[in-house]
Amino acid sequence: MSLIAVEEAQARLQSAIRPITETEYLSLHDCDGRVLSADVASRLTQPPFDASAMDGYALKADEATEPGAVLRVIGESAAGRGFAGTVQRGEAVRIFTGAPVPQGADSVLLQEDAEKLEGGQIRTTFPVTMGRHIRPRGQDFREGDTTLTAGTLVDFTRITLAAAMNHAALPVYRKPRVAIIATGDELVSPGDRPGAHQIIGSNTFGIAAMARALGAEIIDLGIVGDDRVVIAGAIAKAEAAKADVVVTLGGASVGDHDLVQSTLLAAGMVLDFWKIAMRPGKPLMVGKLGDMHVLGLPGNPVSSMVCGLLFLEPLLATMGHRPLPDRMAIARLAAPLAANDRRQDYLRARLSKDTAGDLLVQSFGKQDSSMMNIFAQSDCLIIRPPHAPALEAGATCSILKLRPSSF
Prior knowledge:
The protein is of the alpha/beta class. It has helices spanning 6-15, 156-164, 203-213, 228-240, 260-267, 301-319, 372-377, and strands at 23-27, 40-41, 51-52, 56-59, 70-77, 91-95, 107-110, 114-117, 121-124, 134-135, 146-148, 169-173, 177-183, 187-188, 199-200, 217-224, 245-249, 270-274, 278-279, 285-289, 292-297, 328-333, 344-353, 359-363, 380-384, 396-401.
């Protein structure tokens, strides 16, 4: 199978994705970060009555259009305990923020604009206008209003609104389930003591974090050795767990010890494509095993993470009805770049800003796909299309931000 372009590979994967349709109802305490699967209408009107926006006195505006009006205070209206009577001419009611405006009153005079007199009276010291400092009934929303729509990403603002609408639970799409299988006799888990020819398996944790950020549920199937039977067993566990996506790490090539692809094919995987014209990440594998998407990522840590950004993120965003992180930007080169070859290059780089606030980018000198330290220090990846010509300092280039909110 020949190398295919990154854009073609992304389009082919995207065309095969089917968004999740299953819904579950979750308590408001558990809805943060989930996506609404249906419209949500209010079960009541808010405010449920004309309410005071300030502490002061409820009165008739036409009696206090000029300072100096003298009114008799006939009672009090507090939040949760309104005044039961009606305000007549020459009268006022002491009122507090959030309290119902008494019948007969149409405005609120601020407490600091009232001078207390003897005999339970006040004198106004500031002109009053109709409706001043009153929150009218239904100003926020009314019963039956659809204030939250399907596809909305639930956050603290939407949870607060849902609670105010008298909803204790919300309908949300279930999370995409992502099974992760790390392969290789050379790998041991963090915290374990590696043997003389072993290394720590780190990719699982970065890929899991990436997937969780897009709302996925992680099924960590651990490290499996280079053994067809063991690999087949891990794949069967992913199927039994009803994973929507199985991500394999390493072993997707066709060397003597690369057994993942052949084992998946034997299990019934339909291979869509394999080997992408990109660096790092050339040995990417994409297919379907029944309804389960298969994403075979390279074993080198940086290759794995770059492929995750380009392929796993869009897959999970579409599947989970979520917006894709806004990673793309344009920056100016702080140093020259050499011409590129036939593969699309993703160069680890640092960002800064010039005096005008424009983005400047400079690539690291070393770009080996096993070097995670440089990757962690990077702010972005410079995207170099196939056969891109050499660029001088100051030229513009496309970048993919690793931390979108940082710059």
